[in-house]
Amino acid sequence: MTRQVDTIISARYIVPVIPAGPLENHALVIHQGRILDLLPDAEAREKYATSNWQQRPHHTLIPGLVNAHTHLAMTLFRGIADDLPLEEWLREHIWPAEQEWVGPDFVRDGTELALAEMIRGGTTCASDMYFFPEVTAGTAASMGMRMVVGMPIIELETAWAKSAEECFAKGLEVHDAYRGHPLISTAFAPHAPYTVSDESLSRISKLANELELPVHMHLHETAREVDEAVQSTGERPVARLHRLGLMSRQLVAVHMTCLDDADLTMASEGNISVVHCPESNMKLASGTCQASALRDRGINLCLGTDGAASNNDLSMLGEMRSAALLGKLTSGDAAAFPAAQILEMATLNGARALGMEDQIGSLEPGKWADICCVDMHALHLQPLYDPISQLVYCAEDSDVSDVWIGGSQLLENRRLLNLNEKSLFEKTARWAERLSGFGING
On the chain, which terminus has fewer CB atoms closer than 10 Å, C or N? Predict the structure, then answer.
């Protein structure tokens, strides 16, 4: 007797990450939003029945990609003040533009644009850090996107909050509003060591432990940041966070360039996670994440795009390729960061950093059915000897055909199902007109 289920997806290849795969001519069985089974296609036909059996004969199914560091609303700043160093880009262009324009409407429209881009590129979960997180959360929930929404903490006055104290109050309201939500969770998001006080960081450490939340933070983004910290305090940023109790498994440290042996030891002993953002770091010449050294110390290493304002896209497939190639170049070892390891960094390791490895990041029974389907029937993906290698080194966002989050299909045959693209184009064009005076291309 066959069991009735919601959805079955048959594909030429399935790469579940756990086990490593690839599995050929298998089927993924989905029921009530979760993965029920993964088994050979012929066996699935004997055990299960469904009115929604989707055949993907030239495709590869992988876990939905996890973008572990983003600034989604900043997608509306894409192309502003390109080809400038980080400090000049931020202080002379981005921060003035934020002061002028950032508000709930900006965040809503920028987040919609970013989510559309990410879904079309196979990303099913993102960890965001930006102002008006309540707007980001509402927008993501309405589109069916899985999101870890950062509660930004910064000592400077912003359009969202006048002080760090107000940041805490407003952020915790967002946390309470989405407690138990199936798609939206929260994290503390102190901006960086140079914009957050010891008092605020100590408070974050205490609250993160009490609420069991991640702490998502820029750390050691540039050599200048590290040098200025040492000059002003006599202490490296990693050492400072260690002193304040933040170098723990809850810390999701973004960038992590310019590390010495003591930094690596504290990161390893604290069991932190590190988000490697290779394309943003290269574009801003911010420095290189010491990915090989971090990995060799057993530190959980995952991937993020950073914001589209500094990348300039939100493509996790592109980030995988860049991370693989840069890892080989910087280590001087062509065997470093093989394709399967890079895919794990973009899926399960990202989920682990966000405290969600028991829910997403691999195609295992019991986990949410967050799935990316890549059409491998394209000239630039031929001949197809190894689907994992082709995904990392050859695939493009335009090859992503279908996306499911929690068993709900958001992308079907490259068409977004939950968004009016014409309206999104129109809203984005209006923002581009308003922002055009803020230093396009410097």
Answer: N
